[in-house]
Amino acid sequence: MSKPKPEIKKEVVPMPKQDPEERTRNFNEVAxxxxxxxxxxxxxxxxxxxxxxxxxxxxxxxxxxxxIQLIKEKRxxxxxxxxxxxxxxxxxxxxxxxxxxxxxASCTMGKIGDxxxxxxxxxxVSDWERERGLQITEKPxxxxxxxxxxxxxxxxxxxAANLAKLGHGVMVFExxxxxxxxxxxxxxxxxxxxxIVEAEAEYIKKLGVTMKMNALxxxxxxxxxxxxxxxxxxxxxxxxxxxxxxxxxxNLCGVYSANEFLIRVNLMKAYDFPxxxxxxxxxxxxxxxxxxxxxMDSTRCALRLGAKEVKIVYRRSRAEMPTRAEEVENAEExxxxxxxxxxxxxxxGNERGWVKAMECIRMRLxxxxxxxxxxxxxxxxxEFTMDVDTVIIAIGRTPxxxxxxxxxxxQVTKWGTIVTDENGKTSIQGxxxxxxxxxxxxxxxSAMGAGKKAAKAIHEYLMSKK
Amino acid sequence: MDQILQGLREATNLHEIVTKRELVPQINLxxxxxxxxxxKTKPGQFVILRIDENGERIPxxxxxxxxxxxxxxxxxxxxxxxxxxxxTLKKGDYILDLxxxxxxxxxxxxxxxxxCVGGGVMTAPLHFQAKAFHEAAHKVIGVIGARTESHxxxxxxxxxxxxxxxxxxxxxTKGYKGLDFLKELLKKTKTDRxxxxxxxxxxxxxxxxxxxxxxxxxVNLIPIMVDGMGMCGACRVTVGxxxxxxxxxxxxxxxxxxxxxxxxSRLKMFxxxxxxxxxLQEERxxxx
Lengths: 466, 288
Ligand SMILES: Cc1cc2nc3c(=O)[nH]c(=O)nc-3n(C[C@H](O)[C@H](O)[C@H](O)COP(=O)(O)OP(=O)(O)OC[C@H]3O[C@@H](n4cnc5c(N)ncnc54)[C@H](O)[C@@H]3O)c2cc1C
Ligand SMILES: Cc1cc2nc3c(=O)[nH]c(=O)nc-3n(C[C@H](O)[C@H](O)[C@H](O)COP(=O)(O)OP(=O)(O)OC[C@H]3O[C@@H](n4cnc5c(N)ncnc54)[C@H](O)[C@@H]3O)c2cc1C
Ligand code: SF4
Ligand code: SF4
Ligand code: FES
Hints:
The complex is a heterodimer. By secondary structure, chain A is of the alpha/beta class. Chain A has helices spanning 20-23, 36-44, 53-57, 64-72, 76-84, 90-96, 109-112, 118-131, 154-165, 182-185, 194-206, 223-229, 258-267, 293-304, 325-333, 402-406, 436-439, 444-464; strands at residues 146-150, 169-173, 210-212, 232-235, 241-242, 255-257, 285-289, 309-313, 337-339, 342-349, 355-368, 374-378, 384-387, 390-393, 397-398, 431-433. The longest helix of chain A has 21 residues, at 444-464. Chain A is globular, with a radius of gyration of 23 Å. Chain A starts with 19 loop residues before the first helix and ends with a helix. Chain B folds into two domains: 2-101, Elongation Factor Tu (Ef-tu), domain 3, CATH 2.40.30.10; 113-267, Rossmann fold (3-Layer(aba) Sandwich). Chain B is globular, with a radius of gyration of 19 Å. At the A-B interface, strand 3, strand 5 and helix 13 of A face helix 1, helix 2, strand 7, strand 14 and helix 9 of B. The complex binds flavin-adenine dinucleotide (2 copies), iron/sulfur cluster (2 copies) and FE2/S2 (inorganic) cluster (FES). One iron/sulfur cluster is lined by residues 46-49, 52-54, 64-65, 68, 107-109, 116, 118 of chain A.
């Protein structure tokens, strides 16, 4: 006699969240994580598809049905080990991956209801493990080979972890005083608590990786000098150079790049000023220019720092916003106003050199551009002025240029990204690159995917070399 | 153990204050242990320090490097919370972070006669450059200035590397009163290049003077900075109508092209917050 199949729930188990009213007054994490009951209930929704379309959507190919099955059986320790076979930073990916475009996009459950919330399940098991202390499997034999990693963002950290697990000697050179890249300086505490990034970095150190902070490669050592001391090098320096609008008034006081704003708030903890020494100024009327993750994060930080009115000024419409729907929803719940099809023309200052207003123009959508999105065109005569006392420019970031400028023979594109083959190999023998420095600004998981491929290629290169 | 790796590991440690000397009240000279930085330092570059976990990033121009000892020298003026806190540290104390060298090195080519003008605390890093010019067999004319006689620093050091040295004070307590004498000096001496390090007003005034003589003039800009490696844009300055980042495109720029008004205004961006931090620190009796 066959057991009757339990009814499959169509709706996702909701994520407990801090109340919007409450959370705009603190920097604590908004999404609070599933309980054991909730995680099992959500795992029960997985159909264990044989072809597992979800796995194909994940850039690092986590064995999703297998780890979800283990969650169903409450075998959390094994579940996290299963995830970590493929993903060395799961607590981070579970929080910040654009899952709706990746693993969850093709989930079979999505055809009959909500897709399985793979990210939240991944987050649960990694949090479960961290709360119990990270487990390190036994150390491999050393190969005697040494690799220098430049940049401690998700790309660099992934390469470091993977190579250390294979027994190579790894040293990470990072210019900032903490590892994590955008995870530590850009993405705010309420979306990705710093202690999680620190724990992941700690885990990588326990694998035997040496992390050298405050080392700006290109100035302290060139890539050539690193190659004198190491058998191979990986460049994962990211896209951190802020883009400006090049319109009048952009250098007035009160106009920040999103990176300056976020570095002050996150890396330097300006939200805790004056206990922490780095200051920040946020006025009453804040305009954030742009429509991506960076714009959304700046907006939500500004609200938490006491701004009365925060507007997102975006030149396209909601449909074109390159950010996660969940984050837009969170921002709107928190009271952010979205001004679509609007673009600033110039910033107007007061007599002390501070921004006091912004002249904008309305836009309409024209023909699709190279990116396939409809190009915004200004509507002449629709100019208007908006009063603002703080402006945050979040219109994109381009590759950090120092390595490209100081490395002879390194092939780069006209956009400043480093040219590599599909395994991350650059034009210089023994030098690999991956993440935003190769693709331009992308995602955490794609940077990790690139890191994984590069680690594999570096390993092969090292082992083939005498 | 592999020696290089071992060496690099040691360098990840805290940075010790090897020497601390008060030059004049509120201006201290520090020598920090920073082996790798020392080996790479060239005149014109700077470091960013952080005292402790809650500290802000303090940019300071390198005033000297000793490769054998593995140390770098900076001279710091106490102007606010963080620089004051640095001033409370003693020989043998440690700071948490030291990043550098940062910025492009100064151009030390054979230019002929070089006029080096230093104001206030920046006279110390200027000396590092003047010395390099001197060693490259230039004729070096030095001008050092301060608010008043008791604030003058690095006079003897400058005298050692300059063919001629002039002293100026704002109040005339020593040497010339103000910088007006430079007009005469520029008329009577053929000068091929001018370097100015000091307060924004000094750089502005000197640049205006040299403009009519058509003498290339290099100013060392120190806008507000955060990361110091090109990622935040806090340090943006307008030079020849273009926005540049002082930390990676500079800190040296053509003084005839710099928008000094904008720089002065941007330097005041956080003044209310800085004052608050300072007052709170004073209330705690300077104990941090
Ligand atoms: C505000 C913000 C929010 C984001 N939100 C999301 C999100 O929700 N989900 C998502 O998937 N992606 C998000 N992204 C994008 C994602 O963070 C990046 O794609 C990813 O971090 C790229 O990783 P990376 O390792 O290539 O570079 P990075 O994370 O940029 O790390 C590069 C590291 O290299 C260091 N470095 C640079 N130059 C040097 C040098 N010369 N020497 C030594 N070190 C150097 C830098 O200091 C940095 O630590 C966001 C980005 C930003 C800015
Ligand atoms: C490249 C560079 C090199 C420098 N070299 C020296 C040096 O050799 N010796 C020295 O005494 N000082 C130097 N400075 C200035 C020094 O960094 C600041 O005085 C210091 O950061 C002020 O910190 P505070 O908390 O004590 O004062 P705050 O209370 O923060 O500020 C006091 C004043 O200092 C200015 N200031 C604040 N923060 C910065 C900042 N990050 N960068 C520049 N100015 C700032 C403000 O305009 C303010 O008026 C340099 C600055 C830069 C950018
Ligand atoms: S790593 Fe990202 S894409 Fe892959 S399964 Fe996890 S959440 Fe999905
Ligand atoms: S596609 Fe969805 S339902 Fe199917 S195995 Fe993957 S997560 Fe489970
Ligand atoms: S200090 Fe951040 S870009 Fe120069």
